[in-house]
Design brief:
Length: 170
């Protein structure tokens, strides 16, 4: 019998990527989702690393690969939103009056599986809290609908990683 295929994204459709108009404050928030310390770029790079580190266990490596693809879709959405809102969608964020480019130094690179799992679960939970906070103050219903949809994926990732931790960290 074949193993069930891992589903790494909610089965609900994503709302259209749209905005009500340019908004510098919202654009900066979306840029931080693209290239901040707690960002989709950070998640993607960490999951690629984790995939490579766990290659000796194909189902773990495949899980990181599939989740990273979903995160790439989120990165694309946030980049498009930043652009529509009036920002250049580079891999950067706003620190005071200056832009700071994304750096791989934002990530920690654990080599032991229990640490790896604690880190990815904490990162997904931090992303959920960040997106929930953004959805609470952003008044553009297009953006909040996308944030709420992306949160569903991040919550699924927490479930996936918690299950992996239970299975492999016992």
């Amino acid at each position: 019998m074949d193993e069930p295929k891992l589903i790494a994204a909610s089965d609900l459709p994503y709302p259209p990527v749209a905005v009500d108009g340019k908004n510098p404050a919202y654009a900066k928030a979306m840029l931080d989702n693209v290239g901040g310390a707690n960002s989709e770029m950070s998640a993607i790079s960490l999951y690629v690393y984790n995939n490579l580190r766990s290659g000796h266990t194909p189902d773990i490596a495949q899980t990181f690969h599939k989740v990273s693809i979903v995160e790439m879709h989120h990165l694309e959405i946030f980049g498009k939103l930043a652009c529509m809102l009036g920002e250049d969608p580079r891999m950067w964020t706003q620190h005071g009056c200056k832009k700071a480019y994304w750096t791989p130094g934002y990530n920690q690179y654990p080599v032991h599986f229990p640490e790896m799992m604690r880190g990815v679960i904490a990162g997904e939970n931090a992303a959920i809290k960040k997106y929930q906070y953004q959805a609470s103050y952003i008044k553009d219903p297009n953006i909040t609908a996308l944030l709420e949809r992306i949160i569903l994926d991040e919550q699924l990732h927490v479930q996936i990683f918690e299950k992996m931790a239970r299975e492999y960290c016992q």
